[in-house]
Amino acid sequence: MALREIKIQGDPVLTKECRPVEKMTPRLELLIEDMLDTMYDANGVGLAAPQVGVLRRIVVIDVGEGPIVMINPEILETSGEQTGSEGCLSVPGKAGTVTRPNYVKAKALNENMEEFIIEGEELLARAICHELDHLDGHMYTELVEGPLQDVEYDDEEEE
Ligand code: NI
Q: Which residues have their alpha-adjacent CB atom under 5 A from ion ligand 1?
């Protein structure tokens, strides 16, 4: 298990556009393993590669149903709306209210570079939107309605 340092808001790496992955390499396999370890260690439900300083289009998500690895992900369809609390491992100790689609259908490659389709509702839909935004240099704080709140519990789900 190897943990990587999570970049904090203000680090310019979090504002950049990430490059697609063209082929899987041992280095990227290790990155994905480390991203999962880092996400679980931090009690997050998602983590994007730029959050560990790597500008590649890779995210990992686990909303409690097992790990999902998404490489070069693209949203195909969204519907509905949900408004709720959202946090980010790159904005520690904070949360804010964000409106997202309630349903998301996306395609991505898995760690074997095989395409798959994923559909998610509620927290999974929120996590997919949140993590994919990171790949284009965007943070949830740009979407927050009202002020950021201080989070008192360190086991709060964060993305
Ligand atoms: Ni985040």
A: 88, 159
